[in-house]
Amino acid sequence: MSGTSTDLVLQRLMSLHPKIIDLTLDRMWRLLDALGNPQRDLPPVIHIAGTNGKGSTQAMIRAGLQADGHRVCAYTSPHLARFHERIRLPDGLITEQALSDVLEECERANGGVPVTYFEITTCAALLAFARSDADYTILEVGLGGRLDATNVVDTPRLTVITPVSIDHQQYLGDTLPEIAGEKAGILKRGVTGIIARQADEARDVIEARAESLSAPLSIGGQDWDAYEDHGRMAYFDEHGLLDLPLPALIGAHQVQNGGTALAALRALGVSDAGCEAAITQAVWPARVQRLRTGPLVEAAGDRDLWLDGGHNSAAGIALAEAIGRLPARPLHLICGMLNTKDVSGFLRPLAAQADHLHAVSIPGEAATLTAEQTAQAAQSVGLAATQAETVAAALQAVPADARVLICGSLYLAGAVLRENG
């Protein structure tokens, strides 16, 4: 870290617990109580869980609410280039001074006892949101749902569950029903849940949990639907049909994420104009993002440079479909992944489209796979692969006329965005 006041306090907070992830809410309740329980004073909360699409869905919901004149706070993770991205206030990302102040306030209230980095920084976000002049708060789950640090609001305005798939098995369980059960832990008694299209075994678990809580559900493919039709996006529910442009975020999966966002916005009474803005104005970095300026783009020359942070098998399928929509060019992947991920599962859908993979390790990440390990995983799914020391070195090994997709991890995406200014 660079040594700003925020960086220094974040470094101290990292040392308060021996584990990066330790799923329980006991430490959250203790610290929130010491802070005066700011979670009780939040603007109405939209709580979002799911395996894929959480970030894109929250970005669309936020864009729609803002276009309708609402002031919105949003909490997301992980960050890409700098921590401030996690805490968005109505007037923009939290400032350096405001972030430093709430982090230090949480540090003092904690008194040096064990608490994870995510827990104490989540408390800082909740403190900042409780003191904001906002109409809504969007909270994105960090991991799972039931025991996630964000799951401390008794009565949110809405809960949202995006598509559930296999990921983080070491924390959430090995089967889809187990993982869906953890995601369904954000459902609250009597609170409407907006549920994206799900595999049957995931939907069954979510519906059973909702029934036990008398929580009404609005389910994709049942109560509402979204699909692409002749180069447009169609959405319909009990209120009628919306004929919209395709999402600004690229890919068929973004049509589905858009549908989930629209179902949430319609439940909140957002206007048709706000709904259209959700689809056309949402911005979410490192989700099939084309890089257009910066040192890496200059070094790329005529190469077409794209960035994505997806990292599981479902993300690989969605990414392959999205890249397949672009005009045909030779495709080279620059890929780095963490050792907790299903590398082959992520790469298999991309192997049919890509000409070559250039494997890198993720700078500064202890849990990174080595370039050699990533290259071996690529070769195991039939994708020719070589190793490179850095993203910049890999880029220079790509033919001048190719499309380059940097992918495999949000941590790699963050490193690239920092390197690219």
From TrEMBL:
Function, in words: Functions in two distinct reactions of the de novo folate biosynthetic pathway. Catalyzes the addition of a glutamate residue to dihydropteroate (7,8-dihydropteroate or H2Pte) to form dihydrofolate (7,8-dihydrofolate monoglutamate or H2Pte-Glu). Also catalyzes successive additions of L-glutamate to tetrahydrofolate or 10-formyltetrahydrofolate or 5,10-methylenetetrahydrofolate, leading to folylpolyglutamate derivatives.
Classification lineage: Bacteria, Pseudomonadati, Pseudomonadota, Alphaproteobacteria, Rhodobacterales
Domain Mur ligase central intervals: 48-264
Gene Ontology CC: cytoplasm
Enzyme class: ligase
Record-linked InterPro entries: Folylpolyglutamate_synth (IPR001645), Folylpolyglutamate_synth_CS (IPR018109), Mur-like_cat_sf (IPR036565), Mur_ligase_C (IPR004101), Mur_ligase_C_dom_sf (IPR036615), Mur_ligase_cen (IPR013221)
Protein name according to UniProt: Dihydrofolate synthase/folylpolyglutamate synthase
Entry EC no(s): 6.3.2.12, 6.3.2.17
Record GO terms (molecular function): ATP binding; dihydrofolate synthase activity; metal ion binding; tetrahydrofolylpolyglutamate synthase activity
Record field: catalytic activity: (6R)-5,10-methylenetetrahydrofolyl-(gamma-L-Glu)(n) + L-glutamate + ATP = (6R)-5,10-methylenetetrahydrofolyl-(gamma-L-Glu)(n+1) + ADP + phosphate + H(+); 10-formyltetrahydrofolyl-(gamma-L-Glu)(n) + L-glutamate + ATP = 10-formyltetrahydrofolyl-(gamma-L-Glu)(n+1) + ADP + phosphate + H(+); 7,8-dihydropteroate + L-glutamate + ATP = 7,8-dihydrofolate + ADP + phosphate + H(+); (6S)-5,6,7,8-tetrahydrofolyl-(gamma-L-Glu)(n) + L-glutamate + ATP = (6S)-5,6,7,8-tetrahydrofolyl-(gamma-L-Glu)(n+1) + ADP + phosphate + H(+)
Pathway membership, UniProt: Cofactor biosynthesis; tetrahydrofolate biosynthesis; 7,8-dihydrofolate from 2-amino-4-hydroxy-6-hydroxymethyl-7,8-dihydropteridine diphosphate and 4-aminobenzoate: step 2/2; Cofactor biosynthesis; tetrahydrofolylpolyglutamate biosynthesis
